[in-house]
Amino acid sequence: MWVKVKSAPSLIMAEMWREFLEGEGIPVRLLPDPEKKSTRELSGYNLYVSQEKIHVFNEVMRKL
C-alpha cells in the first residue's frame, strides 16, 4: 500500500523530492493532485511512499 507523504506545487518540485528520496532508498510514486488542475508542469503533485518505507521517510525528514 502507498501512503501520501507530501504535496508539491509543480512537477519540477515533485521530481526533485522523488530524486532525493530515491537516493535515500525510498521508492516514490508521483501522481497529479486531482484538486489542482492546470497544465502538466504547473499542476500540483502528490508524493506517495510505500507503507513499508514510511519509517525511513520519517527518519530522513527528521534529519532535514
Report on this model:
It is a single chain. The protein is built from two helices and three strands; from the N terminus they run βαββα. The longest helix has 13 residues, at 11-23. It has one domain: Alpha-Beta Plaits (2-Layer Sandwich). The protein is an alpha+beta fold and 64 residues long. Strands 1-3-2 form a three-stranded antiparallel sheet, with helices on one face. The mean pLDDT is 92. The protein has helices spanning 11-23, 54-63, and strands at 2-8, 28-32, 45-50.
Characteristic key phrases:
64 residues, alpha+beta, Alpha-Beta Plaits, three-stranded antiparallel β-sheet, 2 helices, 3 strands
Q: Determine the N-to-C terminus distance.
A: 25 Å
Shape: globular
What is the typical, i.e. mean, pLDDT? 92
Percent strand: 25-35%
Q: Count every beta strand, where a strand is a DSSP E run of 2 or more residues.
A: 3
Name of the CATH architecture:
2-Layer Sandwich
CATH topology: Alpha-Beta Plaits
CATH class: Alpha Beta
Q: Percent helix among the residues? A: 25-40%
Taking all Cα atoms into account, the compactness measure Rg is 12 Å
Tally of contiguous helical segments = 2
Neighbour order of strands in the largest sheet: 1-3-2
Ranges where pLDDT stays below 50 over 5 or more residues in a row are none
Q: State the secondary-structure class.
A: alpha+beta
Helix and strand string, N-terminal first? EHEEH
**Biggest pleated-sheet summary:** 3 strands, antiparallel
Query: How many distinct folded domains?
Result: 1
